[in-house]
Amino acid sequence: MSIIQTKDLFKDYEVNKIVVNALRGVTIDFTQGEFTAIVGPSGSGKSTLLHLIGCLDKPTKGDVVVDGDSIANLSKNELAYLRREKIGFIFQAYNLIPVLTALENVSFPLTLLGHSPKKVRDLSYFALKEVGLEGMENRRPKELSGGQQQRIAIARALIKKPKLILADEPTANLDSKIGAEILELMLKLNQEEKTTFVFSTHDKMVMDYARRLIFIRDGKITEEQRK
Amino acid sequence: MKEKVKIDYFGLSLRNLGRHKVKTIITLIAVAVGVLAYVWMDAWLLGMNIDSKRNLINYETGSSKIYAKAYFNKKDELPMYESFTNYQDIIKKLNDNGFNASPNFVFGGSLLSPKQEVPFLFIGLDPELEKKTLSYYKFVKEGTFVEKGQFKILIGERGAENLGVKVGDSVRLSTVIDKKDENGKIKHINQLIELIVGGIVNSPNPKTNGNIGYLPLDILQDEMGLLLEGHIIQICIRKADVSESALPNNTESVLKVKQILGDTLRPELTIVDWATDAKDYIAASNGDNVSNRVMLIFLFIIVFMGIANTMLMAVIERTKEIGMLRSMGLLDHSVIILFLFEAGLIGFIGSLIGNIASIPLNYFMVTYGIDYSEMAKQMNGNFGYRITAIFRSAWNFHTMIASVIICTIVSAAMAFLPALKAVKMSVVETLRFE
């Protein structure tokens, strides 16, 4: 079943009064439970594509359909609600809130969904246990290693059981051993929860783990591989 | 779609304030100092105003005065020819209705001692009625109060110093009697009255202590005096049973006195309240209030600019974090509220600290005050306020509460533009922000 569809997607940016065509007609489908990497060099358009399918931005032309909802006509707030309910994000720099504990960082998406405090607390403890951070609930991000912070970010993305998790270069700030551990964890969760993972990367290790590779260059898909 | 989520803005804001403790503390101190200065100044002005009003009413004007309309219109010129007579029925009616009333004849001139000639304001009065209406007689420092039939004058302490006289010395009153003849033409008659200094007064109202002389009304009636023949300039009025510390209320308002007097208050007479009569004090008080408040507004502008700067820096520093929160589905207005809460908390905590710090300071000012007697002396008491020595503050809980509310609201408002800047950027731009 298709979870994301992009239809002839164009995205133009203006940088210093020069129009940059970041995407030029990308049409692609992602089905539920995929573990896919969008691969390409810097400036190829892979992050732009990730942002569009993550409803963080709107296309200049074309459309994105997320779980049956077209984003073309959605307002800013409607896009926010869509992200809140259906999409989780993992960032290269973890982007945790430094003043909150590990538990509070993980629980934030559930708070946004309006769950009861008890449910939020129970699920957050469980999510941290799932990513191997049991006992570290009350630590602040600066008291944790890069790998542990990325695990929190994964728990935060997963806790609301979204249809789709988008990860922008999730291993770029980690050494290869920790990076492998993180990818193993994501793969395990993908298999257990059937959550769709889409990465943007140029890391060979991520490509090795991915079940599907989409190569992008100059804003166009040039090649696709399935394993 | 409506947002149904309850975000703990307060808890988040409190933690965010803890990110840069030194910066937060400096901003809090700035707010606290601003509020402390404001509350202190306000309490001081209020205290001075309350004391001034009491001293003015108790020792100078009473709660209201009756004049001839023609006199009141040019009161500053002291036009003694615009006097009135047949006032006894007015005083009787007021007495019968629980009011004290004192008839005065006010005139200008100069007082001469062997050493000096000094311009003076003179008030002719009935000692018994004056003592019932005004209380400066309690502050006769040397000698005695004015006595009926005696060619003795009670003068202000500074006036005595200016003249170089003491109780028992001879002085000469020099004035010009302005009198209207049958055709309405004003005649000017020079007059000299030989007097003895009978007493020296030093009351809490500087007006009574300056170049002012009080003398018995009865000695001014004939050719030895001012040829008054029963004329007076004003009647000072005060309710009989009121405490000296109380300011006039509705029971002794102009309207009330008018109702009591009815037709007894003849059409050519007018009644004015103490504030209308003491325009110089009201002008000085308003002027001081305005200038002090303008000064404090500038102080607050600097403080609030500091808050705006702190919030702008916070927004810039946390742009990427804001992007992450928005990508998780936090709505733009929630981001704005978060920053408004944060700035509002700075204003709230800062103003609370300022108010708490103001309590011991104001306690000292209310209980002991500051002695400005030397300054008041140097200014000859001519600075509007009717206070001679100790300037005390008064508690103003309205201002204290209002300062916390206003500071919180204005501080929060200061964060609006920086917060708006944060959500004006697209989510992608904020995530890429370096």
Task: Describe the protein in words.
- The complex is a heterodimer of chains A (227) and B (434).
- By secondary structure, chain A is of the alpha/beta class.
- Chain A contains seven helices and ten strands.
- In chain A, the strands form two sheets. A six-stranded mixed β-sheet of chain A has the order 6-7-8-3-9-10.
- Chain A is globular.
- By secondary structure, chain B is α+β, with helices and mostly antiparallel strands.
- Chain B folds into two domains: 9-54 and 283-432, no CATH class; 65-247, no CATH class.
- Helix content of chain B is 50%, strand content 19%.
- Chain B is built from 16 helices and twelve strands.
- The model of chain B has no long low-confidence stretch (mean pLDDT 88).
- Chain A binds chain B through residues 51, 54, 56-57, 76-78, 80-85, 89, 91, 93, 95, 97-100, 108-109, 111-114, 156, and chain B through 1, 4-8, 12, 15-16, 18-19, 320-321, 323-332, 426-428, 431.
Chain-wise SSE layout:
The complex is a heterodimer of chains A (227) and B (434).
Chain A: E1 2-15, E2 18-31, E3 35-39, H1 46-53, E4 61-66, E5 69-70, H2 76-86, E6 87-90, H3 102-112, H4 117-130, H5 146-158, E7 164-168, H6 176-193, E8 196-201, H7 204-209, E9 212-217, E10 220-226
Chain B: H1 9-17, H2 21-61, E1 64-68, H3 69-73, H4 88-96, E2 99-112, E3 117-125, H5 127-133, E4 140-143, E5 152-156, H6 157-163, E6 170-180, E7 186-201, H7 206-209, E8 212-216, E9 234-239, H8 254-261, E10 269-273, H9 274-277, H10 279-317, H11 319-327, H12 332-367, E11 370-371, H13 373-378, E12 390-391, H14 397-414, H15 416-424, H16 427-432
Parallel strand pairs in B: 3-8, 5-7
Antiparallel strand pairs in B: 1-9, 1-10, 2-3, 2-6, 2-9, 4-7, 5-8, 6-7, 11-12
Beta-sheet strand percentage of chain A? 25-35%
Low-confidence stretches of chain B: none
Q: What about the largest sheet of chain A?
A: 6 strands, mixed
Taken from the alpha-carbon principal axes, the silhouette of chain A is globular
| Oligomeric form | heterodimer
Total beta strands of chain A: 10
Cα distance, first to last residue of chain B? 33 Å
Question: What order do the helices and strands of chain B follow?
Answer: HHEHHEEHEEHEEHEEHEHHHHEHEHHH
Let me know the average pLDDT of chain A. 90
Poorly predicted ranges of chain A (pLDDT <50, ≥5 residues)?
A: none
**Series of H and E elements of chain A:** EEEHEEHEHHHEHEHEE
Number of strands of chain B: 12
Structural class of chain B: alpha+beta
The number of helical runs of chain B is 16
Helix content of chain A: 25-40%
Number of domains of chain B: 2
